[in-house]
Every structure is written in C-alpha cells, then in structure tokens.
C-alpha cells in the first residue's frame, strides 16, 4: 500500500508505508541505544555510590566528583560560563521558592521533564552575583557550616540552597542524559517508547521472591551494586568496605530494576504506581490511608520544612507557637523550626547514653500549655528524631507521644534513621507527622516522604497540588522506594534488628580493645537500653584528628566512614564538652577561614549489606592505625612515607578518573 506525503516545498512524494515504519523503528532504535547508554552510566555511578562532600572513602570521593561535574555539564549544555554562573539542583517546588528570590534575567533553568526523562530534577543556573543573601528559604542538613543554639554560619555556593541530601543519582542521570542529547539529538528521549508493565509485578515480583527472613537478606547481599568493588589502598588493592549507611545507603539489583522500569511507564501506570507505593508506605508504617495522607517530596528535609512552614502560617490568635526539640536533632529537624517566623524553639537535654528525659519533656509541656508560665507561648509541636544519627539511640516514641498529646501538642518524628531499622506504628503510637528519605532505605533515587494525619496541613488546594506534583515527578524514585520497603518487609524488621544488634556488639567489643579510642553513647552490651540502639557508633582518639583518622581508614583499609559534626552540631559540642568561649572562637575562625577543620568524631554506621568480615576489617585497620610507632622519625623514614603517599595519590587519581569515565564517557 502506497501513501502520498508532501515535502517541505509542498510537492508530493511517494513513501511506502513499510519504509515509514522502518524509519520509525530506526528512530526508536536510536532512542533505545541512548537509553541503554544512560542506564549503563547510572549503574556505573551506583557501583561507587555514597553521600557527597562530607564523608571519607573512595565512594564518597567519586560521588562528590560526579555530582560536582554534573553542574559543569548542565552549564555547558545551557551555553553558560562556569566562571559567572553556578548551578543549583532542585525539585520543582524548591525551584519555585528559589526563583522567587531572584531577579528576572539573573538565571536560567532546565528540567528533566524537558529532557524527556522523569527524574524530578531542575537545574537552575544562577549568576553568582545574584545569589540570595541571608538565610535560605529552605534549610536543613548541608545548608549550614556551623550551628549554635543562637546563631548559624551558612554555607557558601550551591550547598546553601540544596537543603538535605540531594538526589545525587538522579542528578548524575540528568547530566548524563544532557551529554547524550548532544550526541543523539535534543529529542532523543522524547521519542523513547513507553514500556507498559503491571504495577504489582514491578513492585512485588523478582528473582528473590521465594526467599524471606535471614535467607533473603543473604541472597539480597549478593545483588548489591558495587559488591566486591576493588579499590587502591596504601597496602595494595582491597575490597571496599562501606560503613557509612547513616549518610546514605547503597542499593540492590531488584530496587534498581524497579527504578529503571518505572521511568518508562505510560502516564496512567505512573498514577497506579504512586497509589500502590502509598499503600506500601501505609502498611509498613502502620498509617491507614483513611487516617493519614502520604506525600512524596525530595527528602526528609523538604518534608520537615513543609510542616514548619505550615505551622508558621497558622493564624491562631493570642498564641505564640513554640516547638520543642532535643539536642539530639539533625540540622534538618532544627533549622527549619528556628527559621520559621515568630516561633520559639525549646531544647531538651539528654542523659549520658543519649536519651531524652521524659520528666523534662512533661515539665516543659505542662508549664507552657497548662500552667501558662511563659505568657502566650504554647508548645504546638514536639519534633523528635526516631533514632539519633550520631548515637544511634531510639527514644521511646510511645511514651513521648502519650505525654505530648496529654498537653495538646502534636508529635513529629524525624524517621530518617528509623524506618530501615525498626518497626514503626504511627496510628498505634499516635504520631501526627513522620518524615523520612528513600536514600536511607536502600533506594538512593531522590524521594522523600511526609506522612501526616488528615486535616493537619493548612495549605490551600493549589499549594497541595503543587507540592504533590513536585514529588511525583520522580516516578523512578517512588518505585524504588516501594520496592525497597517490600524487600525490608519480606526480610522482617525484627530480623534486621537482631542482625544489627549482633554486628553492633561486635563493633563495640572490638573498639573496647583499642585503649586510645573513646566511644560515645551506649557501650555496655548488657545495658537494658542496648536494645534501643541501632548500628551507629561514634568515637574519637586524642592522638589523631577525626578527619585524619577517617582518611587513614580508607587509605590503609579501603573503609568508607563519615567524620565531623554530622549535621548535629549541638550534640557533638555537647559530647566533646565544647566551652562557650571556644564556640565563639570557632565562629570567629570559621568566618575568616571557611575551610578550617572543626572538632568532630568518626562515625561507623551499619546496613543490611554489612557482615562480620566487615567488622573484623574495621577493628584490624583501627588497631594498625592507633598502634603505629610514635616518636622521632628519621629523614629516610619521612622520605619513604612521602613516596608511598605520593604513589597512592597517583593511584587514587587514576581510580577516580576511571570511575568518572565509566559514568560520563
């Protein structure tokens, strides 16, 4: 059958239908090739995935380089000079907030939707001279360089405007797609055909579905992306050991498959997937959908900012709203509350093990809300971490909730460190709000969650629609979260807890044999409180600064950890007994020299991929580092050490360049 078609000059041309179909196939073939290359690059990034900038180890180094390079790729694609412009990566909601602070003509933006891949990413290129001064409109982890009870030194550059852990993998995927657009054409992904798939199959079916419990955990470890990755050390090549799960978790093949299949779903299937993942969240969190709303966001930080903004917008007369938190809190559950206008922040102290005092909690609530000792000030929200990202302590949410509601306040739980480790029962424990991130539950694809009792958010319908659509742009992130939660449920959070307790005891026993180390928090394995601890352990040694100790751990043992203040500045200063005078000195020094290294601690944090062998490697490496001979070093020894360090730096540079090449080539 012949079909008459018309050329651009208006003349008729004869093109047979089979030939047209062949051309369509060729277009689709190019799109499929480009998409396969995108998948290959993202998979390579996952092999060395870690949270960026504030960690040690090969993975953090590579992910930081990939993320920073993504900014330059976006600028180059937009034809902008990196000397003049800087890129901030945002969700669409955060983009709207940021643009409202900028003058027209001082910025350009590009979205992943425009590219043709639904990653929920917007790159906003801003003239450096036009970057907003003062406090960011959305704040939390990473936005501040130093935090005290009464003041904040904000970060410089894009970090100040990327509150919380950014969607690292999605940003890398976005920048990789820009490189592919230059190679294949700007519409290449818009021509990519959708691939339909049953949502139940995508979320619930996989090659491991016959396993459960401990056996599933063992089998899942075999699918860890980056498992057995070999890295250079100063003592030869070794397998990388990731002990930095509190910062961000790696992922597994079934979860990656859910992400990559979801981003090609037709629109109707995407809506089905959003509804099904909300159901999964509802079930695993004990938050019935007839009682709670589930909203997808960018991360925990964005979720808590939504609640703080909501409270700031309340117009209850004759009341000065206050929020009660503890000094355990991460910046993401501190800075949003203190930045909300006209709100007071009240902080609870902790005991030596890292638990809040329930009597102090009740006293504060009674004095403010019942006895009215502080005039019109009323505690409206108690915002508490479900598990500390520094000490690993899990406060008794059930008791905290009972006391909170007794005095008419609402309870928000920062569940970032909790959801992957402990069973949550929101309705049973009467939790009003819970916020957490998918990247803490083995789905590092840029999705956060806010679970909130119906009727508590007072945003208008248009605002709610914009908030929801912003989070739901990242359909792959939502799918991967759903798949991760399904797998955790099949393993069983009781099984995860038991395994984690065993490994935590192994860490603490090993650390106790190293005299120069000082461990903070619960150390007594027989303590009745030990069951209320997740696998997070922090320590210091007087002889070696925390950053140098962490550096030596990856240089000599191939171990990735985190060091510093862990976005919990008040808690770290409390643990280290930082005198108020020294705090002011730090403030002055940091103002003059922003790169100054502040006091801090090294953190080891466990995930379901960790084994006894990982712990043994950790203790062995720490023993070697802390038992190094001390005393006068000869000039020959200094030269030999310098040569080893120089050789290692070359190896590390080569390793880093090769890893980046695998992603962006």
From TrEMBL:
Compositional bias ranges of the Basic and acidic residues kind: 19-29
Record keywords: Pyridoxal phosphate
GO MF assignments: cysteine desulfurase activity
Location of the region described as Disordered in the Swiss-Prot/TrEMBL record: 1-29
Sequence ranges assigned to domain Aminotransferase class V in this UniProt record: 118-218, 267-618
Pfam families: Aminotran_5 (PF00266)
PROSITE patterns per the UniProt record, alphabetical: AA_TRANSFER_CLASS_5
Cofactor: pyridoxal 5'-phosphate
Flavoprotein in keyword set: no
Top-level taxon of origin: Bacteria
Catalytic activity: (sulfur carrier)-H + L-cysteine = (sulfur carrier)-SH + L-alanine
Alphabetized InterPro entries for the sequence: Aminotrans_V_dom, Aminotrans_V_PyrdxlP_BS, PyrdxlP-dep_Trfase, PyrdxlP-dep_Trfase_major, PyrdxlP-dep_Trfase_small
Family: Belongs to the class-V pyridoxal-phosphate-dependent aminotransferase family. Csd subfamily.
Alphabetical list of PANTHER family matching this protein: CYSTEINE DESULFURASE (PTHR43586), CYSTEINE DESULFURASE 1, CHLOROPLASTIC (PTHR43586:SF8)
Protein name: Aminotransferase class V domain-containing protein
Lineage summary: Bacteria, Pseudomonadati, Bacteroidota, Flavobacteriia, Flavobacteriales
């Amino acid at each position: 059958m012949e079909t008459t078609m018309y050329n651009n000059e208006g003349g008729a041309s004869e093109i047979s239908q089979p030939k047209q179909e062949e051309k369509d196939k060729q277009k689709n073939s190019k799109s499929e090739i480009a998409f396969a290359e995108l998948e290959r690059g993202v998979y390579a990034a996952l092999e060395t995935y870690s949270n960026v900038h504030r960690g040690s180890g090969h993975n953090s180094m590579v992910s930081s380089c990939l993320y920073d390079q993504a900014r330059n790729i976006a600028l180059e694609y937009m034809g902008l000079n990196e000397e003049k412009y800087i890129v901030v990566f945002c969700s669409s909601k955060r983009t709207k907030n940021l643009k409202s602070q900028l003058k027209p003509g001082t910025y350009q933006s590009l979205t992943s939707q425009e590219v043709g891949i639904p990653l929920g990413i917007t790159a906003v290129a801003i003239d450096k001279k036009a970057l907003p001064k003062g406090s960011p409109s959305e704040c939390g982890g990473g936005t501040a360089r130093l935090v005290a009870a009464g003041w904040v030194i904000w970060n410089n550059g894009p970090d100040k405007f990327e509150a919380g852990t950014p969607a690292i993998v999605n940003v890398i995927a976005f920048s990789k797609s820009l490189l592919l657009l230059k190679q294949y054409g700007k519409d290449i992904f818009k021509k990519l055909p959708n691939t339909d798939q049953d949502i139940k199959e995508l979320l619930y079916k996989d090659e491991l579905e016959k396993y459960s419990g401990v056996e599933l955990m063992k089998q899942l470890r075999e699918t860890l992306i980056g498992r057995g990755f070999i890295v250079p050390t100063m003592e030869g090549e070794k397998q990388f050991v990731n002990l930095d799960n509190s910062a961000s978790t790696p992922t597994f093949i079934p979860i990656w498959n859910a992400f990559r299949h979801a981003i090609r779903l037709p629109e109707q299937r995407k809506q089905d997937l959003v509804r099904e993942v909300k159901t999964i969240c509802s079930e695993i969190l004990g938050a019935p959908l007839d009682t709670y709303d589930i909203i997808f966001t960018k991360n925990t930080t964005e979720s808590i900012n939504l609640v703080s903004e909501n409270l700031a917008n309340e117009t209850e007369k004759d009341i000065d709203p206050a929020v009660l938190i503890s000094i355990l809190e991460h910046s993401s559950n501190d800075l949003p509350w203190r930045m909300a206008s006209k709100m007071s922040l009240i902080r609870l102290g902790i005991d030596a093990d890292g638990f809040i005092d329930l009597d102090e909690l009740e006293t504060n609530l009674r004095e403010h809300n019942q006895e009215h000792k502080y005039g019109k000030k009323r505690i409206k929200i108690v915002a508490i971490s479900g598990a500390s990202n520094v000490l690993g302590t899990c406060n008794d949410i059930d008791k905290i909730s009972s006391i909170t509601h007794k005095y008419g306040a609402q309870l928000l739980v920062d569940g970032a460190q909790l959801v992957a480790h402990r069973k949550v029962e929101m309705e049973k424990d009467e939790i009003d709000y819970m916020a957490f991130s998918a990247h803490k539950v083995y789905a590092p694809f840029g999705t956060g969650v806010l679970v909130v009792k119906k009727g508590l958010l007072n945003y208008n319908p248009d605002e709610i629609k914009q908030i929801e659509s912003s989070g739901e742009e990242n359909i792959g992130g939502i799918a991967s979260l759903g798949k991760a939660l399904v797998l955790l449920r099949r393993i069983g959070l009781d099984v995860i807890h038991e395994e984690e307790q065993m490994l935590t005891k192994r860490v603490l026993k090993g650390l106790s044999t190293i005299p120069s180390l000082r461990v903070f928090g619960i150390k007594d394995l027989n303590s009745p409180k030990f069951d209320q601890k997740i696998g997070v352990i922090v320590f210091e040694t007087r002889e070696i600064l925390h950053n140098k100790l962490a550096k030596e751990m990856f240089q000599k043992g191939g171990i990735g950890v985190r060091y510093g203040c862990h976005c919990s500045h008040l808690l770290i200063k409390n643990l280290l007994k930082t005198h108020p005078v020294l705090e002011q000195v730090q403030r002055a020094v940091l103002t003059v020299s922003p790169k100054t290294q502040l006091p801090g601690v090294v953190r080891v944090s466990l995930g379901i991929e960790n084994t006894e062998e990982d712990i043994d490697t950790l203790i062995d490496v720490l023993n070697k580092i802390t038992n190094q001979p001390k005393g006068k070093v000869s000039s020959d020894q200094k030269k030999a050490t310098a040569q080893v360090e120089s050789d290692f730096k070359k190896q590390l540079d080569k390793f880093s360049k090769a890893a980046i090449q695998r992603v962006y080539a």
